[in-house]
Amino acid sequence: MPTVTVATRPPKSATATDRPTTTSQLNKLPAAIKRAAKLQGFEAKPGQTLFLPANGSGPAEVLVGLGKPAEVDADRIRQAAAAYAKAVAGHQQVICTLGAGVGSVEPADAAVAAIEGIRLASYRYTTLKETTAAKRQIALKKVTLVSAGRGVKGAVVAANAVVDAVNLARDLTNEPGGSLTPEAFVAKTRKAAAGTGVRVSVWDEERIRAEKLGGLLAVNQGSENPPRFLTIAYTPKGRTPKAKVALVGKGITFDSGGLSLKTAAGMMTMKIDMAGAAAVMATMTALSAAAVPVAVTGYIPLTDNMTGGNAQRPGDVFVARNGMSVEVLNTDAEGRLVLADALSLAAEAEPDAIIDIATLTGSASAALGTQIAALMASDDKLAARVEAASARTGEKVWRLPLPEEYRGQLDSNVADLRNIGNGPYGGALIAGLFLKEFTDGRPWAHIDLGLSAMADADRGLTPKGGTGFGVRVLIDTLANW
Ligand code: BES
Ligand code: MN
Ligand code: ZN
Question: Hey, which of 253, 270, 327, 332 would you mutate to test ligand 1's pocket, going by the most ligand atoms within 8 Å of its Cβ?
């Protein structure tokens, strides 16, 4: 992953530079470049690039298409920067002038978008690769952002912290379930949190039992790895917090389905089932750098969902933290069980808002595909905050309803609640309705990531694999409170 620093003029050592090009700038290019562009079919379409090798004087140039000038916004710059990063992947030191502001985009906003585009697109998970060839694959080491705009330096520090957080969440999501146990997740949290001004506290199994986290214990019954419950707290420095917000992340370090076992194919991606937890943990590490004005506490239940001899059986009943009894008719609907306890704990602290994030259902992706996450909320104002952050960051969420008329599907014959509905339809909504029971009527928003946590191909800012989806939406929501 390249580092990005700011300078007011381009460094001599760089071997490539971008030439941001809108459709209206096409005609004003120097004659030789204009000819090359025409010959190679470069029309300044958004995300289109054309690499022009160095010809003795100065670095290589990359024409970076931005489309029509009036259409240029932060997201356009972000995508263009990602395309630029790909075009210069063979270079070590490059220049980026996109961040100086284009069209009506302020230099500081353009700088943030350029950094996000370049650094997020350059991410690779190489930790487990045996040879250094894979590590060399992306050679880009140093990007110098040329911009003299006001507030750019500060914006760059924050943007780098946000990108670090997204890439941390990606690392965690990409790590195999066999090595990222609850204890390992905790150890990584302590390491990542050091120096970021947040307070980490960890409950072991004994404490989890004493605190009556029945859902977390029920899911953990089939596992050899003890559960953990992780809390991470942030308070803004030198000001009274504008509000108190709770984040809750699903931390299933591997989901086999339990005795309601998944298919082999269904299990193949299930190391990602802690992507919500990763998003919350990584978000917490960036709050101070992003100067977030609200107090935030992250609640993260951690266990894998396995099939050991003591695994919960379909039909078993447990009592959750809030005293409700839950009949578990499908052990593969486990995320809602661990989230139930975490939401109860969050609500007990009486926050102004609770936001949870989870790879909760395949149904969310059946509805919205793999690049848009589902949003559900008990509070329109909170939903609007998340939707605004989504629009600003380009991490797409779409609001789904929490229909009261489906609530009856969660009525159990033997307990207060059952953990699945009564048919194959509307699974994301049923899961949302289940979670709502544990929010104690507080303003609450729920982000069901579904498969948006994992990309099946390289796309724009998101290389194949763990996406870190949600980190930017969460940080942006909190930063703009
Ligand atoms: N972790 C899965 C949901 C999931 C599946 C996320 C695929 C991303 C990709 C969750 O624990 C689960 O298994 N949900 C079930 C619920 C069902 C049993 C009611 C599902 O969605 O099928
Ligand atoms: Mn499951
Ligand atoms: Zn799961």
Answer: 332
